[in-house]
Amino acid sequence: MRIDFKLNNQVVSIDVEHSKRLLDVLRDDLNLTSVKEGCAEGECGACSVLFNGMLVNSCLIPAVNISGCEIVTLEGYRGTKRFEAIKQGFEQCGSVQCGFCTPGFVLAAEALLSSNPNPSKDEVIKGIEGNLCRCTGYQMIVDGILAAKEVGKGLW
Amino acid sequence: MVNSFWPMTLSEALDIRKNHNVMIFNGGSDLMVKYRCWSGISVDLPKDILYIGHLNELKSIDINPSEIIIGAAVSYAQFLKDSRLPIEFKHPIEQIGSVAIRNIGTLVGNICNASPAGDTLPMLYALDAKVVIMSTKGQRIVEISDFITGPGSTQLNHDEIVTRIIIPRKTYDRTFYRKVGTRKANAISKVSVFSVADIKESRIDDIRICIGSCGPTVIRVKKIESSIIDLRLSELTLDIDRFLRMYDEKIVPIDDVRSTKIYRSKVACNLIKTFLTKEVIL
Ligand SMILES: Cc1cc2nc3c(=O)[nH]c(=O)nc-3n(C[C@H](O)[C@H](O)[C@H](O)COP(=O)(O)OP(=O)(O)OC[C@H]3O[C@@H](n4cnc5c(N)ncnc54)[C@H](O)[C@@H]3O)c2cc1C
Ligand code: FES
Ligand code: FES
User: Fold this and answer.
1) What ligand has the least distance to the C-alpha of B187?
2) What's the pTM value of the predicted model, to 2 decimals?
């Protein structure tokens, strides 16, 4: 079926099966490989994207549900000032090791900061509860988001 | 390949439900996992799909003096954001899944999935929630404890759609919720307990204790509840062990990958004890 939606600020029209996962639409049809497949069952957050500004797991969204909606992946988000702030925070705190989980954590951080620009440490931990990282032990990612909120003060 | 229906209105959805053999797809957080396939291949849905998660008619939370009415497509996130709803009713919901899961998962999807570990269920049983079911013929309203008939099964007919949940609007002197899972997020409950109580002049005026994940459906034993009601708090104190033994007999958990029977029974009784001693008696 034909599905029109907005992807990273551009109008896109695709022809796919209604139940194709948004994850596959983004990676295979649209070559947006920042969206990673980890668990394929909603548990790891590697496939996170923003759906009308909300954090979702793209492995759980059927293509039909994005019709008329706005999707942002890291490829689109990285052009923003907010991304620069998160990038700096992550660099300062060593929040990235292998990097597989990073696109998901960056978008989880954006979803958190856009609803709560000044989160406490506990609120940061809750905000990234659905994202798994095999490398960092999380502490550095929590620190990275806390640093980002300072670097980017006023942006959210 | 299965067909899909994307109705524009609820009445169109009810017509489709009547005339086709379809599976209802709401937020999809259970279905997309249950029927997942390999990367690059569409989800292997077993029959034609009726999408309802986008219907505006099912997206409202309405509150009147006696009821809280929750539409079928209301997500956990929408429920949590609604400042009109009591904070006690939000405790079980904020511990479900993760941020991203709560953005798509719905309370009604959780009820219709009818998992013994469904985390909305102990609360909805304790609050005497009702399920509103519609078909082209009209609507019927059933108690949640009658709606769910076993693990994964409900009394929904092939031509019906659940459109709302009704929670009687009432405040309670005491509310209690604990979920025990393997980790804090994205964890399926091993045991959960939701309870409420009202106390008037040092007597129990009302008490409801609901246990999740410890049987084929939520366990609520009205007989034990009515033997606690009207007791003085001092009498309850003396009788706690007897009531716990009565609950222990009613709790019939299973051994599975997540936990054992013995652990579940022990933890469920400990949680009921905590509720009675730390919340009710004080
Ligand atoms: C990573 C992850 C974590 C999770 N964590 C939890 C958790 O902590 N606690 C918990 O309880 N659950 C959890 N779940 C399960 C799931 O998110 C919930 O059960 C959710 O409430 C399902 O709602 P949905 O709208 O997404 O359901 P769907 O997948 O759309 O539907 C579920 C079932 O209900 C039926 N159905 C849905 N709506 C209707 C309707 N209106 N009328 C008739 N039938 C209907 C569908 O046909 C299907 O059989 C988790 C799932 C995932 C993937
Ligand atoms: S791949 Fe989607 S959450 Fe893990
Ligand atoms: S940096 Fe390797 S998984 Fe997180």
Assistant:
1) 1
2) 0.97
